[in-house]
Amino acid sequence: xxxxxxxxxxxxxxxxxxxxxxxxxxxxxxxxxxxxxxxxxxxxxxxxxxxxxxxxxxxxxxxxxxxxxxxxxxxxxxxxxxxxxxxxxxxxxxxxxxxxxxxxxxxxxxxxxxxxxxxxxxxxxxxxxxxxxxxxxxxxxxxxxxxxxxxxxxx
Amino acid sequence: xxxxxxxxxxxxxxxxxxxxxxxxxxxxxxxxxxxxxxxxxxxxxxxxxxxxxxxxxxxxxxxxxxxxxxxxxxxxxxxxxxxxxxxxxxxxxxxxxxxxxxxxxxxxxxxxxxxxxxxxxxxxxxxxxxxxxxxxxxxxxxxxxxxxxxxxxx
Lengths: 155, 154
What we know:
heterodimer, A: alpha+beta, B: alpha+beta, seven-stranded mixed β-sheet, 5 helices, globular
C-alpha cells in the first residue's frame, strides 16, 4: 500500500494525458462529477495545456471507476481526451452498453477497449493519479493547479 | 480546541443505526475523530467522500475513523447511504454538540462543530489535532497520513 503523506503535485511528465498549448494546468477531475462536467467546458476554453489527472471518488459517484477506466482504455488507443469530452458532454449514458457505443463512435477496437478497461494496469494508472491528488491535499473536484499552486480548490 | 497530550474526553453517542458507541470501546486501538459541521452540506459531502476513498489505507495503520456531527442518527443513516460511506457516524444530538464542546470543536454562534480532526492513541490520549481555519476549508487526507507517519516514528 502506498504512502499518502503530503507531497507537492507531481509536475507534468511523459506519462500524463496532455492537450493544448500554453502554460500547464494540472486538473484533478472526477468523470462522474457534475461540477467537473460544467467546469470542463470552461477549463478547455483556456489557452493552456490541460494535464488531466484521474480523481474518481467512487463512494460518491459509483460509476466513476468504470468511467476513468474507459477513458484510460480509450487513451491506450490514442483517444483519451475524446472519451473524456464524450463522458462530460453526456452524463446520462454511462452504463457499459453506452461505453461500447462511445468507443464505437471513436473508432476504437472494441475487443481491445474491453480488455484494457478491465486490466490491472489501467486501475493502477488511475490510482496513481488519485494518490498524487490525495498527497497534494485535493479534497474536491475539479482541483486545478497552475504552476503547482491550487488555483480553484472547489467551485 | 483540545491539545495533544491531553486525555481524550470519553463519550457515548448513538450511531447511524441507533447503537450506542463509546470512545472507551476502542481502547487499545487508535481512533480518528472527524468532527464536521452538518450532513448534506456540499463541503462535508466532499470531505467524508474523499476520506472514504482512503479508508483502507487509514485502517491499515490500525486506525478506526469515526465521523461526528450534531445531526440525528436518522440523518446520518441517509447521509451515509447517499454518499456510499461505511464510516460510522455518531449523533452529537442531545445535548446538542456536547461532545464537540468537550473537544473544543464547537462553534457556538453557528450551532455546529468546526471541521476538526482528533487522533487518539491506544491509551486514550490525544495524539494530534487539526482544526480548519474555517468550516469551509477541508483538511486534506494527506494531513491524516502525515500525523500517522510521525506518530509511528515515535
